[in-house]
Amino acid sequence: MVRIGVIGAMQEEVSALISQMKDKEEYTIAGMTFCKGSLWNQDAVVVKSGVGKVNIGICTQLMITVFSVDFVINTGVAGGLYKDINVGDIVISSDALQHDLDCTAHDFKKGEIPGMETSVFKADPELVDLAKEACELVNPEISCYVGRVVTGDQFIGVSEKKKELVELFDAYCVEMEGGAMAQVAWLNKVPFVIVRAITDRADDTAAVDYNTFVQQAIVHTVKLLAAMFLKLGR
Ligand code: ADE
C-alpha cells in the first residue's frame, strides 16, 4: 500500500481530514504536528504546514525523509487568475512555479531559479488525472481546471499585481505554498499534485471575498480528496 502525504497551510484546510482519520498517531517536528493513520482506507500522513514557502518547504522535506510518503498532495485555497474562473471552482496543478523569485537584474526571467535545471515543476500526470476524475464525480456543480499554479510569499489583493501575474505566467491561480512543495518534491524525485479551491479573484476585493468564501471553498477540496483516495484504493 502506498503512503500519501497531504499538506495544507491552515487549520481549516486540514481539520476535516484529520477528524476523519482512524488509528491516528501524532508526531510534532519543527512545530508541525504530523498525523499518521488511515484516511478513507489509505495509509496517510496529514499536516498543517503553516503559511508560506519556508513552512511548506520544511514540511515537505519532513514528509519525505521522516514519513517516507510515496507522493505529496497540497490542498487548500487560491486566488483565481484565469479569466473565466469562479469562486468555488477547483484548480489542479499541471505545473507550479514561484512568481516572486526575481533575479531579473542578472538577466534571468521572472520566476527563474538561477543554477537549477528547471524552475517550472511538473505535477504527476496520473495524480492530476485522478484528481480531475474525482472532482468531476463529486463536485459536478463547479468547474474543475487543470492549469499552472503560481506561488509567492504574498497575498495578491491588488488588481495591478494580478494583471502582472496573468501577463507573465499564464497561470490559473495564485497561492502561497504549492510551488515550494513542488520544488522540494522535484528535488527528491517524489510525485506531487496541488489541489486548490478558488476563494477570490486576486483583485481589489480579494481580501473580503477570501473571508466570505473560504469555508465554502474547502468543502470542494475535501470531497475531491475523499473521492481521489477511494479511486487510489481500487
Ligand atoms: N489564497 C487565496 N487567495 C489568495 C490570493 N489572492 N493570493 C495568494 N494566496 C491566496
Short description:
This protein is an alpha/beta fold and 234 residues long. It has six helices and ten strands; from the N terminus they run βαβββαβββαβαβαβα.
Order of helices and strands: EHEEEHEEEHEHEHEH
Protein structure class: alpha/beta
Distance between the termini: 11 Å
Largest sheet: 5 strands, mixed, barrel
Instruction: Give the tally of β-strands.
Output: 10
Strand content bin: 25-35%
Report helical residue fraction: 25-40%
Average pLDDT level: 96
State Rg.
Answer: 17 Å
User: Ligands in the structure?
Assistant: adenine
In DSSP terms (H or I, runs of 4 or more residues), the helix count works out at: 6
Question: What general form does the structure show?
Answer: globular
Runs in which pLDDT lies below 50 for 5 or more consecutive residues are: none
- In spatial order, strands of the major sheet run 5-9-8-6-10
